[in-house]
Amino acid sequence: MFEIRIHGRGGQGVVTGAELLSVAAFDEGKHAQAFPSFGSERMGAPVVSFCRIDDEEIRLREPILEPDALIIQDPTLLNSVDVFSGLKPDGYIVINSHRSFEELGIADYVAKFPPHHVGAFGATELAMRHVGRPVPNAALLGGLAAITGVLSFESVELAINHKFPPKIAKANIAAAADAYELAKAA
Amino acid sequence: MIKQIEGSQAVAEAVALCRPQVVCAYPITPQTHIVEGVGALVKSGQLENCEFINVESEFAALSVGIGASAAGARVYTATASQGLLFMAEAVYNAAGLGLPIVMTIGNRAIGAPINIWNDHSDSMSMKDAGWIQLHAETNQEAADLHIQAFKLAEMISCPVMVCMDGFILTHAYERVDIPTQEQVDAFLPPFEPVQELDPDNHYSIGAMVGPDAFMEVRYLAHHKQMEALERIPPLAAEFAEVFGREAGGLVRPYRTEDADTIIVAMGSINGTVKDVVDAKREAGMAIGSVGICSFRPFPLDALRDAIGDAKRIVCLEKSLAPGLGGMLASNVRMALRSNPLPVYTVICGLGGRVITRKSLSGLFDKAAGDSLDDVTFLDLNWDVVHQQLERARDHRQSGPIAESLLKDLNPGLVRRAS
Amino acid sequence: MTEESALQRVKFYQTGTFTVGNRLLDEAKRSVQASMERSNAITSGHRACQGCGEALGARYALDAAMRASGGDMVAVNATGCLEVFTTPYPETSWQLPWLHSLFGNAPAVAAGVAAGLRRRGRGDIKVVAQGGDGGTVDIGFGCLSGMFERNDDVLYICYDNEAYMNTGVQRSSATPPAARTATTPAVGDAPGNVFGTGKNLPRIAMAHNIPYVATASVADLHDLETKVTKAMGISGARYIHVMVPCPLGWGSNSADTIKIARLAVESGLFPLFEAEHGDVTLVKRIRRRVPVEAYLKLQKRFAHLFREGAEDTERVGAIQRMADANIARYGLLPEGEAA
Question: Are residues B132 and B212 in the same domain?
Fold first, then answer.
């Protein structure tokens, strides 16, 4: 089982991100379970969502306490939420920031992970460029696919196409593709 | 068609396949996505010959349902938590009038303190209202139970609640096989009311009944539930035949063979329980579980058979009967009255408190050693409780408990105005 | 029934009573109640008190509705006297399909019946919901407002006897000021119900901009029947508020029910009018104005206002001012008579 936890803020598509991941996994013939952190959070409040991916039926209903991968949609959460809680020692981290880990103040922490398991890139900027709105979730999924290899980019693309109307889907796929390339190149 | 889909949407699609004619609901978290989904199917014309009525309260929602059902239409509604309490009077009334309405409950806690998260306090509060209560373990089963529910309700003229855990199921995306219209039509015939409001054959429905006949009417309501007990297993078997998968039934035993310890629970928690049972079995513990699908009628015989020669029962309960403990355990003891085993009550998951494999694992160890208390509160923060109790000992305090507790949990947040 | 006869432009008054004598009218213009073919929607043998205004009002209204719909109708009833006295198990007085669910949900149930019938291809069947003032202005008010707001295809009729009579005469928000009820006893400095409270449901109904609102009285059969008939011919939410004296709760003689209902109208305390889409379209002018005392003195619930040697002229005056305000607001005085 591969478990992904997404941290972000209300309005950033955190729940949609998990849903897209689960659909991408489903498209690959896997079992997947996506669910939000179940709150009445408003725009801007810290939000968490979860996605489990497995080859077998997933019966477990607890939140993801020890994730294999983390997506951090908003780096300002680093100061207010224990986003790294329970992350496995060989886990993956994808952060939405064009700043370096040093600038984010997590260089020491990140150094504990294999170098190709962590990536930071400006997904919001990519979203602004392609989608025209600060919704970094699709781009980050591209980054996650590149770094973890748990999903193919084609599945992510399929899931985005499935979720959004053609025009919006196309823009999000472009953002995801850029992120995918950036992460692969890093 | 197998889809990766949100639980609420899956239920909405399954309900639409049942061709309801009147759908009436009032929004309450976490039920909203279900009725939004059905509403969209009505508005887009995908669900034909159906009216979706937006009303001003849950009380009105079920009341509209009562009227429409009495007029002979197939009726669906959904609610949760406070909404179920607000419609309570109509809940009893629909059952008393024998109207085969199907209602989804997106199980949620009841306040105060207000809480939007999952537990079973809401449906439990209506356990004796005369409705059949079915609990879904997965979103697949939630969808499937609705198809069975309409058939069962109309078979015996009794309303049915399909309970699914709020958020945990309603908001979870997982794979669900949505049946075809042909399959559902083959399983569920059109509704033919026993009695309806017809000018050519007029009845007075809902007349006052005095002491001379009230007992008999109530007995017949009980009899109806007992009849449902007979009808549910063949209905589940027929469903399996048409749809090619298991869903519903009275109880669902899991690895109960030679089990000394049996966990009894309702709803989605059974998934986590099965994972823990597997781990314990691997470690050599003789443990199994039984999921209760039909809570009303309560399957005394089926449960007793499933329990077999076990030495102890642990009831995981997502609701609390203050002053007693757990209602599920009380019901389970009734099933075991000729074979009195220890039945431990474990109150867990109230108001969305996370139930982890780790906690359950420790709990099952304790149970296997018979070192559980009669009533256990899983993962209770005793520090906070003791502080509050101590404070209350020092000086008598009336007033809200939650705000008092908050002071201990987060002293910075609560300041006295003075 | 033509509008002409109901508005009583045909002036065949019998001396003293101001009622239209059926015998003097064309057969086609006679009241539904005068017809051998009337449906007796609530048939004899029910358990209402002698002189019950509600039993009378409901029979008048439903027989007219049955005639208007050709018998294709359903009645939904709120809990209350009407429901209890017509259906002592295992008997029923209703000669039409009838459904009772709860005290506070008749408007919603009726909306559901209408929807259910439509979906079953019987949209031609009309739905009438009915309740007393408690079920309408108090406990059923939320559902009623919802029914109005959605413009559900239901005619709702309120039989207003100004208190909870079924439970033993307790105050409702339709109870008039100074009236004695079990919960506004005639004791203390200001005996009876307080002034300045209560709600005017016909006007609240009008504020929902529904197609039709009317007030009616059991004292004016033709007017009541015409309004019901008119309402039955309209689609959408309709509301008729009928004043029905209650001998038990009001402390009046059973034989005086019609007389008291008429005095309520003639004093101006209960104005008769029609409104369409929020505007008053027609009022029934008073024929011979009477002071409110004439109405109040026939009822023991107001007896404390007229104690010998201690008449409460101040509060009787206040009630008179309420009647005067109605007369001014609706223009109720006979033509040519100044206020």
Answer: yes
